[in-house]
Each structure stands twice: as structure tokens, then as C-alpha cells.
Design a protein that fits this description.
Blueprint (H helix, E strand, L loop, with lengths): L5 H10 L4 H18 L7 H16 L7 H6 L2 H4 L3 H14 L3 E5 L2 E5 L2
Antiparallel strand pairs: 1-2
């Protein structure tokens, strides 16, 4: 089942028989919402910083399994970050397909594919 988004809800509302001024306002709102949700926005400052940190994580990853703590110990820049931050960066790399995650005995291990 697809989740109903604001744009979908506005499209349904626009299909109803409404006065022209109301349709104009709803159309403007729908266009504004669609633009805000588009992927064409430039990345935020935090996203740009995270990309640089992801490159550092990739530099220390090998084909052997390593925990987040192991990854942090291999780089001074990464050891200055929190465990949660490095974990989020590595999981983002897993989502991008640049790293592989294995869970063995309830412990997460990461490596290059």
C-alpha cells in the first residue's frame, strides 16, 4: 500500500468540483510542495561534511570485517567523532552499496564489497 503524500492529497482535492480561486490556491500549494520535496535541491552544509567523512570511512575499510569501534580506531579524524555518528556514516555507505554489513551474534560488522 502506497503512503498518501501531501502532493497526492492535493491532486485528489483538485479533481473535485471547486471554485477557480480555491483551485488556483491548491495548485500553487501542490507545486510548492512538489518543489520542496524534489531531489534537485543543493545539499546542506552537514550533507557536504558527511560526504567527506564517508570518504574517510571508505579509506579505512578493508575486505575484512570490522566493527564501528575498529573503524574509529584506524583514523584520528574518525576517532574524534561519536560512535553513533560513525555508525550512521557506515550505514549510509551500506545503503549506497559501497559497504557490506553482516550481523554475527548480534554484533554488526562492516567491510568493502
Amino acid at each position: 500500500m502506497k503512503t498518501l503524500t501531501y502532493v497526492d492529497a492535493l491532486n485528489v482535492a483538485l479533481s473535485a468540483d471547486l471554485p477557480e480561486d480555491v483551485k488556483a490556491k491548491l495548485t500553487a500549494l501542490r507545486d510548492q510542495t512538489a518543489k520542496r520535496n524534489s531531489a534537485e535541491r543543493k545539499p546542506t552544509k552537514a550533507q557536504v561534511a558527511n560526504e567527506a567523512l564517508k570518504e574517510q570511512v571508505l579509506a579505512v575499510l578493508t575486505t575484512e570485517n570490522a566493527t564501528v569501534t575498529d573503524i574509529m580506531g584506524k583514523s584520528d579524524a574518525l576517532s574524534a567523532l561519536s560512535n553513533q555518528k560513525v555508525s550512521a556514516l557506515v550505514n549510509a555507505l551500506v545503503e549506497d552499496g559501497k559497504a557490506v554489513k553482516e550481523v554475527l551474534k548480534r554484533k554488526s560488522y562492516f567491510r568493502l564489497p
